[in-house]
Design brief:
With about 850 residues, the protein is α+β, with helices and mostly antiparallel strands. It is built from 34 helices and 24 strands. The protein has 7 domains: about 100 residues, no CATH class; about 100 residues, Immunoglobulin-like (Sandwich), CATH 2.60.40; about 55 residues, no CATH class; about 80 residues, Alpha Horseshoe (Serine Threonine Protein Phosphatase 5, Tetratricopeptide repeat); about 55 residues; about 80 residues, Phosphorylase Kinase, domain 1 (2-Layer Sandwich); about 180 residues, Transferase(Phosphotransferase) domain 1 (Transferase(Phosphotransferase), domain 1, Orthogonal Bundle). The relative contact order is 0.03.
């Protein structure tokens, strides 16, 4: 097999020359010709050392081969010896010529390493790998050698074929010159004729020298163990508190143990120059456990099981559970790890593990207990636990998702409530109508505004509901509204004909006749329209009797007198605003709340006007966070209002049971209150008496604001000796105490006091001249004595309780956004 190895070529040439000279010298003729020079060469020691290895086998072959002996006899002659010598010299010359004119190429080597460091290398090319040679502590030379290489070098006239490139050198920190690494690399390259090959060598694993100095209360610690948090095999011991460790750039988590404790620290290495990192074991930051010396050594060695058992024996059950959770997680036992995290009270982390193994139902429960309602709702959804998912989305005020989950759960009442809260009143009413809950359908349809795209269909559905309830006059009114909303050129003869029937049945024959005549003028061929007109004309032209009463309400008309319409069931509350009863609306067949206003209201004409005006304004409001007002009227001088009956508790009662709310619950309640206030303020309606007893929480966890406008009425009925203007002094804004209510920012002050009370369980001012304190004293810090109270909530409450309205947030919507930000960060 031919080879291009230079050493092999030299050996072949030398062998040929030795053979030729030996044969030549064996010939007597040649001896005569070359004389003494040949004899001196052949008798020298170095020639004898070369002759025996070559001629020994040759002599053995002579004894066994006739042809070879004949060749030897020829070579022993002068002519034969000269011929063989010439052939050998010719072969050597051919080898030299071949190497000189053989095709060559180029090689470019690029060495990559970080810009923050510098390197210097020696680069060599070899035709054989040097790994085994260097493993034995040896090095080979090469005629292709470059020294002082930094990042790039080039070799010219390199023989084609495969080559091995060795790179040896040192990497140093650019600024300090400290040695970072000794480099000894080998890569392969292939050289093609008349081409330049490019080889890349990347030196990426370069560490920086880091010295750790571990202290205990600013004194050097002894017998300290230190390792990377997730690599027990990196454990190093520092007898005198000093240990060095090379680290890659970036952040690393270390655990350090000594005495009775283990701490965890995060170390940042930002450059390649040597650095010193100080760790004080006495600081509480990152403490994993303390007070258990037997657990330190096994923990540092990565034996979490032994460490956990030692901690459990010493009464550190929670820390032991955390270590076991980490151990189970490393072993791939995620479920057992989640159980241990639950035991340790790490509910969110346990929930995340449950979620990772698709145990969505348990993950949802854990998220909910941890106060993470959004994640809980999503997990209940993933687990297809529709009732729980609907409840969680409801608490988040995500009405669309709550409606979807209520629908999947088959909970019609919940779906109607979610649709109502979402503002899809017509859809909610249609569903209530399908469930034969006409009272609820009527209430919802009455809230559909004229700008709603479904207002026309709502009027039709409301007319049908009124008709089924026997309120023919109300049904007729709704059909008239529906006909008024028709587009120009659009007609509905069926609705017009039915309107005439309703008017006739309710005693409005003249109006019924007008409707039918209008219909006949436009649709003369409509069935039965002519005969109905004639029948009505005959009724209207019939005789009347003198015994007819001066006035009788038309058949089917709704009575508005309390004694006729409402049946009192029981008293459910009383206070400064009067008595509250649970009552039954006989006409609509629904249970309502009836509030009877103070007895002396009729003695104050201004208060009566306020009552009617405020009641009308409140009745126009349609919002999920405001109690719906149905009606306002009087009976024998007693004024009353009717509203939706709520099932649940006012916030002041809940606060008495709980003591105080956490920051997240406080923010959630505040967001709902802001939603209702923003809606009312946009209607230019100010509540004037926001407080915990006027904020009601339903069974569905929906907050509703009660008694809109009633504080203003109460003010008008108080005598001149009263010290209260309107509202409650514990919650009253400074300008309100002075009798000046500027705008909705007065309500924001009272809401700030309410948030203070919810989050602390106490009022900011509760003793002495409370009104004076609201005017003159800065609000106290709500976070006093409460751990983990969000600073942002402190700032918001103090801003809402600013003495000047212009220093408060501009609107309830702005307060809501701030509360949502607090909720996201808490």
């Amino acid at each position: 097999m031919h080879t291009t190895d230079m050493c092999t070529q030299r050996r072949a040439t030398l062998a040929a020359l030795v053979c030729g000279i030996s044969l030549f010298c064996a010939s007597a003729a040649s001896a005569g010709a070359f004389g003494g020079w040949v004899r001196q060469v052949t008798e020298s020691d170095w020639f004898e050392a070369l002759e025996e290895p070559v001629l020994g086998p040759y002599r053995e072959l002579l004894a066994d081969s006739k042809e070879l002996r004949r060749f030897h006899e020829f070579a022993s002659t002068r002519d034969g010896a000269l011929a063989l010598t010439g052939i050998a010299l010719l072969l050597g010359g051919l080898v030299v010529v071949r190497r000189r004119f053989q095709a060559t190429g180029q090689l470019t080597l690029r060495v990559h390493f970080p810009d923050e460091i510098q390197g210097e290398f020696e680069v060599q090319l070899h035709q054989r790998s040097q790994r085994k040679i260097r493993a034995n502590g040896q090095r080979s030379s090469s005629r292709h050698t470059r020294k002082g290489v930094q990042r790039e070098t080039q070799f010219d006239r390199v023989t084609t074929g495969p080559w091995f490139v060795t790179i040896d050198g040192t990497l140093r920190a650019r600024r300090s010159g400290a040695i970072l690494a000794e480099v000894s690399e080998e890569i392969e390259a292939t050289i093609a004729a008349k081409q330049c090959a490019v080889s890349e060598c990347t030196l990426s694993d370069v560490d920086a020298p880091v010295e750790f100095r571990i202290h205990w209360d600013r004194r050097p610690a002894t017998d300290v163990g230190l390792r990377l948090a997730d690599r027990p095999q990196t454990l190093r011991y520092a007898g005198q508190g000093h240990v060095q460790m090379p680290l890659a750039l970036g952040e690393h988590r270390f655990v350090v143990g000594a005495g009775d404790r283990v701490v965890e620290r995060t170390v940042h290495v930002g450059g390649y120059d040597p650095c010193v990192i100080q760790i004080d074991l006495a600081e509480p930051d990152g403490l994993i456990f303390k007070g258990c010396p037997p657990a330190v050594s096994p923990f540092l060695h990565g034996d979490l099981g032994d460490a956990a058992r030692a901690l459990e024996r010493d009464g550190h059950e929670n820390v032991a559970a955390l270590l076991l959770a980490r151990l189970h997680q490393e072993q791939g036992q995620t479920e057992r790890a989640a159980e241990q995290l639950e035991n340790a009270g790490r509910l969110r982390e346990a929930a995340e593990l449950r979620q990772s193994i698709s145990d969505f139902a348990r993950a949802a429960q854990l998220y909910e207990h941890a106060g993470e309602l959004r994640q809980a709702a999503e997990m209940y959804d993933a687990a297809e636990s529709w009732p729980e998912a609907a409840r969680a989305f409801w608490a988040l005020e995500d009405w669309a998702e709550a409606a979807r989950c209520f629908e999947r759960a088959g909970d019609g009442d919940g779906l109607i409530g979610a649709l109502e809260a979402q503002g899809e009143l017509f859809r909610a009413a249609a569903l209530a109508s399908e469930r034969d809950d006409r009272a609820r359908a009527i209430r919802l349809l009455q809230q559909v505004g004229p700008q709603d795209p479904e207002s026309g269909r709502a009027s039709e559905l409301l007319a049908m509901a009124f008709e089924q309830e026997g309120h023919l006059d109300l049904a007729a009114n709704q059909l008239e509204r529906r006909l008024e909303t028709l587009a120009p050129g659009e007609t509905s003869p069926e609705l017009e004909f039915h309107l005439a029937e309703l008017l006739e049945e309710s005693g409005e024959m003249t109006r019924a006749l007008d409707v039918l005549q209008t219909l006949r003028d436009r649709e003369p061929t409509y069935p039965h329209v002519g005969s109905r007109i004639e029948a009505l004309r005959k009724k209207l032209s019939g005789p009347t009797t003198d015994t007819a009463p001066a006035f009788a309400p038309p058949a089917g008309a709704t009575a508005f007198v309390a004694q006729q319409r409402y049946e009192i069931i029981e008293e459910i509350g009383r206070g400064g605003m009067g008595l509250v009863y649970k009552a039954r609306d006989r006409r609509l067949g629904r249970i309502i709340a009836l509030k009877r206003m103070p007895e002396n209201l009729r003695d104050h004409p201004t208060a009566v006007q306020l009552f009617l005006g405020e009641a009308q304004a409140a009745a126009r409001m349609n919002h999920a966070n405001i109690v719906t007002l149905y009606d306002a009227d009087q009976e024998h001088g007693h004024f009353f209002i009717t509203m939706e009956l709520l099932e649940g508790l006012p916030l002041n009662k809940i606060l008495e049971q709980r003591g105080r709310f956490g920051p997240r619950d406080t923010a959630r309640l505040g967001i709902q209150a802001c939603a209702g206030l923003q809606y009312a303020h946009e209607q230019n309606i100010v509540h004037r008496d926001i407080k915990t007893s006027n904020l009601f929480i339903t069974r569905e966890r929906l907050l509703k604001i009660m008694d809109f406008g009633l504080a203003k009425i109460l003010e008008a009925v108080r005598d001149s000796s009263a010290t209260i203007i309107a509202g409650t002094p514990f919650y009253m804004a400074p300008e309100q105490a002075a009798g000046n209510v500027s705008d909705g920012r007065t309500d924001l002050y009272s809401l700030g006091v309410t948030l203070f009370e919810l989050s602390t369980g106490r009022l900011p001012f509760s003793e002495g001249d409370v009104a004076s304190q609201h005017r003159e004293c800065p609000p106290p810090d709500p976070s006093l004595g409460i751990d983990d109270y969000p600073p942002a909530l402190v700032q918001l409450i103090k801003r809402m309780m600013s003495k000047q309205p212009e220093q408060r947030p501009a609107s309830a919507a702005a307060v809501s956004e701030m509360l949502r930000a607090i909720l996201r960060r808490t």
